[in-house]
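Checklist before submission:
- one chain only
- standard amino acids only
- sequence pasted in full

Submission:
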Amino acid sequence: MRFKQSIQTIVLGFALWVCLLFGAGQTPIMAATLNAAAGSVSQERIQTLPEAVLTLESGVDHFLTAMPAGYYTIANVEGLKSLLENDQPLLVDVREPSEYQSGHIPDAINIPLRTLTHNLDKVPRDRPVVLYCSTGYRSAMGVMTLHLFGYDNVRGFPPSFAGWKTAGEAIAKA
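Returned file contents:
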Protein backbone atom coordinates (compact mmCIF):
# COMPACT_ATOMS: atom_id res chain seq x y z
CA MET A 1 0.00 0.00 0.00
CA ARG A 2 2.82 2.42 0.92
CA PHE A 3 4.61 1.64 -2.36
CA LYS A 4 1.43 2.42 -4.32
CA GLN A 5 1.06 5.75 -2.48
CA SER A 6 4.67 6.61 -3.27
CA ILE A 7 4.16 5.93 -6.96
CA GLN A 8 0.95 7.99 -6.94
CA THR A 9 2.78 10.84 -5.21
CA ILE A 10 5.57 10.81 -7.79
CA VAL A 11 3.09 10.74 -10.67
CA LEU A 12 1.07 13.55 -9.10
CA GLY A 13 4.20 15.64 -8.59
CA PHE A 14 5.25 15.06 -12.19
CA ALA A 15 1.79 16.05 -13.41
CA LEU A 16 1.92 19.28 -11.41
CA TRP A 17 5.36 20.00 -12.84
CA VAL A 18 4.07 19.47 -16.39
CA CYS A 19 1.09 21.74 -15.70
CA LEU A 20 3.41 24.44 -14.42
CA LEU A 21 5.81 23.98 -17.31
CA PHE A 22 3.18 24.30 -20.01
CA GLY A 23 1.07 26.88 -18.21
CA ALA A 24 3.91 29.23 -17.27
CA GLY A 25 4.53 30.59 -20.75
CA GLN A 26 0.93 31.36 -21.60
CA THR A 27 -0.34 34.90 -21.68
CA PRO A 28 -3.97 35.43 -20.61
CA ILE A 29 -4.93 35.80 -24.29
CA MET A 30 -3.21 32.53 -25.22
CA ALA A 31 -4.84 30.73 -22.30
CA ALA A 32 -8.29 32.07 -23.23
CA THR A 33 -7.79 31.04 -26.86
CA LEU A 34 -6.62 27.56 -25.88
CA ASN A 35 -9.46 27.16 -23.40
CA ALA A 36 -12.03 28.29 -25.96
CA ALA A 37 -10.66 25.88 -28.56
CA ALA A 38 -10.53 23.05 -26.06
CA GLY A 39 -14.08 23.76 -24.88
CA SER A 40 -15.61 22.63 -28.15
CA VAL A 41 -13.91 19.23 -28.01
CA SER A 42 -13.34 18.78 -24.31
CA GLN A 43 -16.24 16.35 -23.85
CA GLU A 44 -14.97 14.23 -26.75
CA ARG A 45 -11.40 14.39 -25.43
CA ILE A 46 -12.49 13.41 -21.94
CA GLN A 47 -14.26 10.32 -23.28
CA THR A 48 -11.11 9.19 -25.11
CA LEU A 49 -8.59 9.84 -22.33
CA PRO A 50 -7.11 6.78 -20.68
CA GLU A 51 -8.48 5.99 -17.24
CA ALA A 52 -5.09 6.66 -15.63
CA VAL A 53 -5.12 10.26 -16.86
CA LEU A 54 -8.60 10.78 -15.45
CA THR A 55 -7.47 9.29 -12.14
CA LEU A 56 -4.43 11.57 -12.13
CA GLU A 57 -6.62 14.56 -12.94
CA SER A 58 -8.99 13.76 -10.10
CA GLY A 59 -6.00 13.24 -7.77
CA VAL A 60 -4.58 16.65 -8.66
CA ASP A 61 -8.04 18.18 -8.26
CA HIS A 62 -8.41 16.56 -4.84
CA PHE A 63 -4.98 17.80 -3.74
CA LEU A 64 -5.67 21.37 -4.86
CA THR A 65 -9.18 21.58 -3.42
CA ALA A 66 -8.01 20.13 -0.10
CA MET A 67 -5.67 23.08 0.45
CA PRO A 68 -6.89 25.11 3.41
CA ALA A 69 -7.20 28.88 3.37
CA GLY A 70 -3.72 30.35 3.73
CA TYR A 71 -2.12 27.56 1.67
CA TYR A 72 0.01 26.20 4.50
CA THR A 73 1.66 29.53 5.18
CA ILE A 74 2.77 31.77 7.99
CA ALA A 75 1.82 35.18 6.65
CA ASN A 76 4.07 37.56 8.56
CA VAL A 77 7.18 37.94 10.71
CA GLU A 78 5.19 38.19 13.95
CA GLY A 79 3.45 34.90 13.13
CA LEU A 80 6.80 33.18 12.60
CA LYS A 81 8.26 34.66 15.79
CA SER A 82 5.25 33.44 17.76
CA LEU A 83 5.55 29.95 16.27
CA LEU A 84 9.30 29.87 16.98
CA GLU A 85 8.66 30.89 20.58
CA ASN A 86 5.78 28.53 21.32
CA ASP A 87 6.13 25.44 19.12
CA GLN A 88 9.88 25.14 18.40
CA PRO A 89 9.49 24.22 14.73
CA LEU A 90 12.35 23.07 12.55
CA LEU A 91 13.20 26.06 10.38
CA VAL A 92 14.51 25.02 6.96
CA ASP A 93 16.23 27.45 4.60
CA VAL A 94 15.78 25.99 1.10
CA ARG A 95 18.16 28.45 -0.58
CA GLU A 96 21.52 27.44 -1.99
CA PRO A 97 24.42 27.03 0.50
CA SER A 98 26.10 30.28 -0.59
CA GLU A 99 22.88 32.21 0.11
CA TYR A 100 22.49 30.51 3.49
CA GLN A 101 26.11 31.24 4.44
CA SER A 102 25.74 34.93 3.64
CA GLY A 103 22.93 35.22 6.18
CA HIS A 104 19.94 33.25 7.46
CA ILE A 105 17.29 33.21 10.15
CA PRO A 106 18.90 32.02 13.41
CA ASP A 107 18.63 28.28 14.16
CA ALA A 108 17.61 27.44 10.58
CA ILE A 109 19.16 24.46 8.86
CA ASN A 110 20.02 24.52 5.17
CA ILE A 111 18.47 21.98 2.81
CA PRO A 112 18.56 23.43 -0.72
CA LEU A 113 15.30 22.87 -2.59
CA ARG A 114 17.03 20.83 -5.30
CA THR A 115 18.17 18.34 -2.61
CA LEU A 116 15.00 18.27 -0.51
CA THR A 117 13.82 14.81 -1.56
CA HIS A 118 17.29 13.40 -0.84
CA ASN A 119 17.16 14.78 2.70
CA LEU A 120 13.73 13.67 3.89
CA ASP A 121 15.40 11.99 6.85
CA LYS A 122 16.24 15.48 8.18
CA VAL A 123 12.61 16.63 8.02
CA PRO A 124 10.65 15.42 11.06
CA ARG A 125 7.00 14.41 10.90
CA ASP A 126 6.36 14.85 14.62
CA ARG A 127 6.90 18.61 15.02
CA PRO A 128 6.16 21.73 12.97
CA VAL A 129 8.44 22.46 10.01
CA VAL A 130 8.71 25.87 8.35
CA LEU A 131 10.39 26.41 4.98
CA TYR A 132 11.67 29.73 3.71
CA CYS A 133 13.85 31.03 0.88
CA SER A 134 14.70 34.48 -0.51
CA THR A 135 11.30 35.57 -1.77
CA GLY A 136 8.84 32.69 -1.26
CA TYR A 137 8.93 30.87 -4.59
CA ARG A 138 11.26 28.00 -3.68
CA SER A 139 9.71 27.53 -0.25
CA ALA A 140 6.24 27.19 -1.84
CA MET A 141 7.59 24.46 -4.13
CA GLY A 142 9.19 22.77 -1.12
CA VAL A 143 5.97 22.88 0.90
CA MET A 144 4.02 21.35 -1.98
CA THR A 145 6.68 18.67 -2.45
CA LEU A 146 6.65 17.68 1.21
CA HIS A 147 2.85 17.63 1.30
CA LEU A 148 2.89 15.32 -1.72
CA PHE A 149 5.21 13.06 0.30
CA GLY A 150 2.65 12.93 3.10
CA TYR A 151 4.03 15.58 5.47
CA ASP A 152 1.10 17.43 7.03
CA ASN A 153 3.22 19.43 9.48
CA VAL A 154 4.95 21.68 6.94
CA ARG A 155 4.24 25.34 6.24
CA GLY A 156 5.96 28.04 4.26
CA PHE A 157 6.97 31.53 5.26
CA PRO A 158 6.22 33.65 2.15
CA PRO A 159 7.78 36.86 3.50
CA SER A 160 10.91 34.69 3.52
CA PHE A 161 14.37 35.93 4.28
CA ALA A 162 13.72 39.28 2.59
CA GLY A 163 10.75 39.96 4.90
CA TRP A 164 12.67 38.83 7.97
CA LYS A 165 15.59 41.08 7.07
CA THR A 166 13.36 44.07 6.23
CA ALA A 167 11.67 43.72 9.63
CA GLY A 168 15.09 44.21 11.25
CA GLU A 169 15.17 40.78 12.86
CA ALA A 170 18.38 39.00 13.88
CA ILE A 171 20.40 37.39 11.11
CA ALA A 172 22.90 34.58 11.63
CA LYS A 173 25.91 33.88 9.45
CA ALA A 174 27.42 30.45 8.90
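Reviewer check: DSSP finds seven helices and four strands in the chain.
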